[in-house]
């Protein structure tokens, strides 16, 4: 046992000694010309791929020579314009636009379901609510609140409005919405409504402020331009007026379907600015996409409820409105870049260093697949084993000079 331990300690000592002495060795590359066409083609091919990657993708596509800013300061103001007719009534923006003050979110009502003249009182619960159907009072628990229902149960079993069956009586706003609702036709004129979107963006790092509206110094000409123009990617990129029909079409949505269920559409404003060019080239691009999930029909679409309260004969009453519409979420992304020497130097050094990968790959191929007789490896690796006895010369266990030239004539 002691002998084994002694051998182990001696081996460990030799390993630590060799590792410590080898740690201070210096390695330097050796130039060796290998005249092998296959290896030469691989070497130049890998070099071409590396250089092409850095020139085309890193420098041209990604603009790695630029200092960039990706968190700009942005403000958005929206305004809906348009007039609709419903029967004898004329509807303006106050009737169908929420919120009225504008912002990065705006919606318009496309269809309404209205429950008129509701008052606080007691009435029959809707028959589709769980455990609402009854035959006697004992079937209804007084004070019970069903959160899928419409109110608090009184403990009585009453006739369901003008029908023969009965449901539990509840205390709530009567008549209930699911019984007395009136579904109005869709506001088809809304397809021609326009949304005014004003966006200003500021890149504080570069002190650049841009807007999405055409620069016109004359106020009258500016008003005339804004009143008549409609956005077009090719002919009118600086017009901030967008038709609802255009937005729905760009989002690949059918406007008539949106009138039925409503929907949420994202208006994406993208600022991708190369500040090495004139600032006039820093222009926004727009894209539109449906944001709510259409696969789940139970939760898809967009709707909300609100009520209009009034007093009739001293009794508080209300008109409950369930509104289906389009909600527009304006989302702004910005990226600006400008030439800077620091990222240019870093990217250039990285590119030059990456070219060294070509040598590593070709050395591995040469020593693993081509050097079957170890001719290349004998020339590739030299080891200085002692200090030179003559100042100009050194003892090297190699078959050739420090600069080797191997041709295809070497027998492998």
UniProtKB/TrEMBL annotation:
Taxonomic path: Eukaryota, Metazoa, Chordata, Craniata, Vertebrata
Reaction equations catalysed: Ca(2+)(in) = Ca(2+)(out)
GO MF entry, a single one: purinergic nucleotide receptor activity
Membrane-topology descriptor: Multi-pass membrane protein
Keyword Transcription regulation: no
Stated name of the protein: P2X purinoceptor
Disulfide bonds: 123-174, 134-157, 140-168, 229-239, 273-282
Species of provenance: Pagothenia borchgrevinki
Residues engaged in binding ATP: 194, 322
């Amino acid at each position: 046992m002691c002998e084994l331990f002694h051998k182990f300690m001696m081996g460990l000592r030799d390993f630590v000694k060799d590792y410590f002495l080898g740690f201070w060795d210096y390695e330097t590359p050796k130039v060796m010309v290998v005249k092998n066409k296959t290896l030469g083609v691989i070497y130049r091919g890998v070099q071409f791929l590396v250089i092409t990657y850095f020139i085309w993708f890193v420098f041209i596509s990604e603009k790695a020579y630029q200092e960039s800013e990706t968190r700009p300061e942005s403000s958005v103001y929206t305004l809906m314009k348009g007039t609709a007719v419903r029967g004898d009534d004329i509807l303006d923006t106050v009737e169908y636009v929420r919120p009225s003050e504008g912002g990065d979110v705006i919606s318009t009502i496309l269809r309404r379901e209205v429950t008129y003249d509701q008052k606080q009182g007691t009435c029959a619960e809707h028959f589709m609510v769980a455990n609402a159907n009854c035959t006697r009072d004992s079937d209804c628990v007084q004070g019970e609140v069903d959160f899928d229902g419409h109110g608090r149960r009184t403990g009585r079993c009453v006739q369901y409005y003008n029908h023969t069956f009965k449901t539990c009586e509840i205390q709530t706003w009567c008549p209930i919405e699911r019984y007395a609702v009136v579904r109005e036709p869709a506001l088809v004129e809304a397809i021609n409504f326009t949304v005014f979107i004003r966006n200003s963006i500021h890149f504080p790092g570069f002190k650049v402020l841009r807007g999405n509206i055409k620069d016109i110094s004359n106020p009258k000409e500016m008003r005339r331009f804004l009143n008549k123009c409609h956005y077009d990617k090719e002919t009118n990129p600086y017009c901030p007026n967008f038709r609802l029909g255009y937005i729905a079409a760009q989002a690949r949505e059918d406007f008539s379907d949106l009138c039925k269920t409503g929907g949420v559409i994202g208006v994406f404003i993208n600022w991708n600015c190369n500040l090495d060019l004139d600032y006039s080239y820093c222009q926004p691009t727009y894209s539109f996409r449906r944001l709510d999930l259409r696969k789940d029909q139970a939760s898809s679409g967009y709707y909300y409820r609100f009520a209009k309260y009034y007093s009739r004969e001293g009794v508080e009453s209300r008109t409950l409105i369930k509104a289906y519409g389009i909600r527009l979420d304006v989302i702004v992304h910005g990226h600006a870049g400008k030439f800077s020497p620091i990222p240019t130097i870093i990217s250039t050094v990285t590119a030059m260093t990456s070219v060294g990968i070509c040598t590593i790959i070709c050395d591995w191929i040469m020593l693993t697949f081509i050097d079957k007789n170890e001719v290349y490896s004998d020339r590739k690796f030299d080891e200085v084993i002692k200090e030179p006895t003559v100042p100009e010369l050194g003892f090297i266990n190699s078959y050739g000079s420090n600069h080797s030239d191997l041709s295809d004539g070497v027998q492998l």
